[in-house]
Amino acid sequence: MLAGTDGVFALDEAVPKDLLAALVQQVHDLLENVPDHCKDWHPRSNNQVLDLVHPSLYPLVYGRTRVLDAPMPNLDDWRKFISGGAPKPAGSYTDKIFRQYMFLSEQFQWLPSDFAVNGEGKVTIQSYINNLHPERHAALYPTLVRVFECALPLLERVLGQVATPTPVRINPDPYDWYDSYDEDDTENNTYATWDDWYENRIPNLPDPADEFDVAGHSFTPYSLRGRTLKVITKLANIHLSPENPTYPGGSWHIEGMLSEAIVATALYYYDVENITESHLEFRTGVKPPEYDQSDDRGISFAYGLYRDGPLVQPWGHISARQGRMVAFPNMYQHHVAPFELADKSREGHRKIVAFFLVDPSSPIGEEVVSTSRVPPQQADWIADAWAKDGQFPLAAGQQLPREMIDEVVKKIDGAMSLDEAKELRLELMDERTLAVDEIEELAYSGATYNLCEH
């Protein structure tokens, strides 16, 4: 199950074949098989990334989105609460440092769903998945729940690893990396020869141990059973064609902002066709290691760090193979590495289901609002529900025309048109791009390594 990178876990064929077949068929029938003008290509993706279910569309908008005081009793009750609640201001957590550095959004929050997990690891979804209609797309709900059940053990391993990290395997001693300078060689013992030796010496790094004894390491299992979890669900495809055959790769990022309090991610690569090997790459910020004075060579040789370079180290990668489930903590930056069509004469794709787990143990995670308290904002959902329920009856059993219902929906608080939702998505993307840049500057590439004299 361990993927070769600390804290990252993977499992091949994690989902039973019948469940995989149902997922592929239902996603095709309910989400992909739509007219071209209805397809939601992710902005700025060169028509390569197709959003099927994405949390950036119709997010919670502070000061705009209506939020209930208490959760809706269950998934089927969403229609009863349309336009209920009141607009929610920005979160009550007001740490100025977090806000100053854009870790907390004052505008948006992705909306998770409530997933109730019983003691045996069986999951019941208690609130709608944002942008996945609970009636039009009803068949997908139990399918996605079963996929999440398959991801649950991996997420538990990730959180257990975060709670009790693996001990350091090698304790480096930079002052013992080199053989001593032979001062007894009086014939060549000059400043020039010493300088030459010092500048060109190669550290004698310890070899990796053949075995690593973890007997003394107390790993604490982490259980998500018996809890109601907040889970953000995303489905997206990368499509390549002979006319557009190369995916350039994604940006380095962590998922969400502190407003979502995402602690871990599970990805399921359920359909991969006609592409070269695709990697999900990880990296992490590091603290400056100990070093011998001015030992540029040793630090670069041992750690891959360079004078005035970023305090960042690669953290390995994992191959995005069909049928593979991957889970990792949301403390590593990650990105999709570039890939292209294997056979340039035909199309190819890579399709994923992603689950972003809101931290179930943090105060900020408790503050995150789920769809159990947010009546749907989608104007077409509201209009469909009111038309179906006969909300506006006329004489002789007639119903107000749908066009007029649409006009009524435009006037109510809490309803949002698709055009407005897409405009807000661009604002959200711009905000999060700035946040990624801020985090990059503070914690990753912006933190540089300086070899000072001491």
From TrEMBL:
Top-rank taxon, per record: Eukaryota
Signal peptide per UniProt: none
Annotated DUF4246 domain residues: 6-384
TM stretches of this protein: none
InterPro entries: DUF4246, DUF4246_C
Listed name of the protein: DUF4246 domain-containing protein
Species this protein is from: Allomyces macrogynus (strain ATCC 38327)
